[in-house]
């Protein structure tokens, strides 16, 4: 392991040297920019920066000491330390950074481990099919990320001789789906390049540290944050520094309920001192009323350019929010509301097992290339009948059988929230008696239940399927009226219908009537007609 570590550090140093060489010119021009900045009237007030180099050194050491003690052991962190091969290390960090975009660490761990086990190198990933990648990604959301990783790996193999880009600039230019933050994170973590990285967590920490309250997505704030973090980043441990900032944002300086009392950089935090000073002033005022002593507290430090400053908040300070006055985000647009008609089409397979019809989504756009039950986006609610007819015609073409809408059975509705869409699936089902359906085309396939659960389908489709199977399996657990058997007509009816089939149904968790759907409808009719019935 020691050998490995020293090799790895060597590797990192090489990376660092490469950057130093590569950025010699840039450094020169950066110095020039700094000189110009001092003359520039629009340079941010020192209230929002770290003007004292001693402060910067202290902050780095406070943060890194905390990180060394408190950091979570995560598979990609372990790989970034133990993997001596620069190419594999860069690939491993790239995969983790893409998976972590918009997704929680806890969710990513499992996916990451499975991914790295299956495709441990960029060459392995390049040799996989997009279908396999989508299948592996299923459930992680934002599916274009997996597709871009796959495209990127193929580019590395075919155009870069299998070598991952080794600088922040080339990562940014060469890899699809890699933006400014991701390139900086990969460059600093896997290659030891001295660059800061600004993600959502870092935005929050920096805005609070330097009381930056203007819209955190505005260009002046974005540039100010990048320049701040590039000044703060530790030249010896850039990757650890960036991860420490993110870790701090994720675990201490959280969006709601930040743990300021446990924060390693509290002494550097302008928001904290502002809140603290306000509280002190308040209590002194109260005491002052009693003993009429003049306040010994200095005025709360503020931005000298306040009023014209592009980094100061435009909204007034809210005492109730405390440090959460920072950062400020523009009001979120409400998600688009959509309704989609979807139909679970099933038939009995050769071995008697049910099979479900799935169609593939187009290669571009939302959920690109994933599989779903035949579906149709509804224009508006009133168009449901018209769309049902259209979907029925589409399914008829797919299976090569003339079907009518009366074959559709209503199952229910499922809501799935995407980041920008509030999607309601209006679920129907259709049971084909005849197995003699058309052979699947490239974009259609029949899958068994277990194959469907493994397939490249979205979480929304999984929810639809769960609703469908739950409806099938409600069985006899429906009547909770409390009446005895002779009085409760529903229970009598159920008993009458299910006497023999019931045991089989409970044993197999499959419907005990002639078809799952007829059973469901039966239950649903009773359920709707009798409020004292419910599906458990
Ligand atoms: Fe965040 Fe509080 Fe730490 Fe400031 S003191 S950085 S607000 S946790
Ligand atoms: Zn200001």
UniProtKB/TrEMBL annotation:
Residues 1-13 have a biased composition (Basic residues). It is an enzyme of class 3 (hydrolase). Keywords: 4Fe-4S, DNA damage, DNA repair, Glycosidase, Hydrolase, Iron, Iron-sulfur, Metal-binding, Mitochondrion, Nucleus. Pfam families: HHH, HhH-GPD, NUDIX_4. It is found in: Mitochondrion; Nucleus. Belongs to the Nth/MutY family. This is Adenine DNA glycosylase. It comes from Labrus bergylta (ballan wrasse).
